[in-house]
Design a protein that fits this description.
mainly alpha
Length: 79
């Protein structure tokens, strides 16, 4: 069994599917995207637009990366 590790810089493009996947990741952990936003002190609409690919700033990129990391937790995916 092989483990996938993020070795190369990968830019994940925001989309409705990414938004849904991140929300599902938080729900699977027993929390919500809204609670995550409140805990981080960021505006929910800003995160929504970043995840859906409607914002392209450096801050939006950082929010996407952080939300994905926190939504997935410390999981590794096996092939």
């Amino acid at each position: 069994m092989h483990r996938i590790k993020r070795a190369l810089p990968v830019a994940i493009i925001g989309s409705t599917d990414l938004y849904r996947a991140v929300r599902a990741g938080f729900v699977a952990q027993g929390t919500t995207l809204n609670q995550w936003c409140i805990g981080k002190g960021v505006n929910r609409q800003t995160v929504d637009k970043a995840l859906k690919g409607e914002r392209f700033s450096k801050r939006s990129r950082a929010l996407i990366d952080e939300a994905i990391k926190d939504a997935l937790g410390e999981q590794e995916f096996a092939l």
